[in-house]
Amino acid sequence: MLRFITGRLVLTIPVLFGVSVIVFLLAHLAPGDVTTILAGPFATEAVKEKLRISFGLDQALPIQYAKWLGHILQGDFGASIANRRDVVELVFPKFLNTAILALSSALLAYIIGFFVGIFSAARPYSFPDRIVMSVTLMLGNAPPYWLGLLIVLLFSLSWRLLPATGMTNIMGDGGAWDVFLHLILPMLTTAAAPASIVARMVRASMLEVLSHNYIRVARAKGIRRSVILRRHALRNALPPIVTICGLQLGYLLGGVLFVEVIFAWPGIGNQLWQAIQARDIPTIQGATLVIALAFVGVNLAVDVINAYLDPKIRASERAGAS
Questions:
Q1: For residues 137 and 306, is the Cβ–Cβ distance under 8 A?
Q2: Cα–Cα distances in Å, from 60 out to 52, 66, 166?
Q3: Model confidence pLDDT, tens digit, residues 88-125
């Protein structure tokens, strides 16, 4: 297992290098001129040129990339052009807020997805199966901005049960309970699509496993359906489910932009949106790089979990190395 993890870590290095190149180029090749935003639309070309020199934007892209990567490797993400603050101070607290929203949404999505998927797989092609799958399909395809506004309209404006925006109440104590109350509505909105995807994957994987001969033998022995589902089917169905769960978590950690904007959640997606509007290149690069690193880390964890669950993966890895 240690050899498998070491191999995956080594393979991560070229992936991270490729990610850094793409992040750097995307920020610089995007249309727009940061000096126009900073100096205003009526600034002269001489003023804009001074700003380019002061930020190092007049140098060739390979030189800018080498300097940027060197600073990143030392933990220096640069300074925000728009906010005049270190990017680290802007991005990492926002990423922590996004992680709170993403992890809670992912946990809710996994619980709903597993329950609905197993329920449907235990009654395939029955009326309850079709009803449940239809509901999950509709919720999963509902646009987040529409679903979020609908939830705000019902729970905040009509029934006045929960706060609509922000992470804490201005007049509150800002404690864990206050954060939890503000978290509920964005969590429900964010979890809808992943829950639908997980439910469909759980159902499909369980149906495939339940068609195997050893499951028929277990049924012929009179073993209860709940025991068959829990002990014999679910474990063997887990690898593809874990993969899709990891992909959904990586997507959520990337900052659910629409949800964070609708609910004014101070996450990294919201910060990235503001940085794009201000053409704040260091913040765009820092936020995007953090999101990409989180996604790579989640995928690495998924590979390790799958290797732990399925010995055939470890065996194929050893066969490929020998």
A1: no
A2: 12, 10, 41
A3: 888 888 889 999 999 999 999 999 999 999 889 888 88
